[in-house]
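REQUEST FORM: STRUCTURE PREDICTION
Request ID: SP-0412
Submitted by: Lab K.M.
Chain count: 1
Length (residues): 83
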Amino acid sequence: MYLEIITPEKKLFAGETDLVKLPGTNGSFEVLMNHAPAISTLSEGKIKVKEPNGNIIFFEIQGGVVEIKSNNIVILVDSSGLV
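STATUS: Completed
RESULT:
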């Protein structure tokens, strides 16, 4: 899957991932390969990104929106930091 995490200031992440865990407004959820298309709002919390090489990265966000379509994930966040 290809993931982009974007803030108004800059692009925080762009690359291939095996798993993305998101803090959805109605509870956290994970996105794996071939996930159904979806759009969701995100609440304050952490995004967990697992890269193909096994590295795990966390991003702390204040809120945002995610679009999942055809193994492409675009996350627009209000503000964020690397944890």
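NOTES: DSSP finds no helices and ten strands in the chain.
Reviewed by: T.R.
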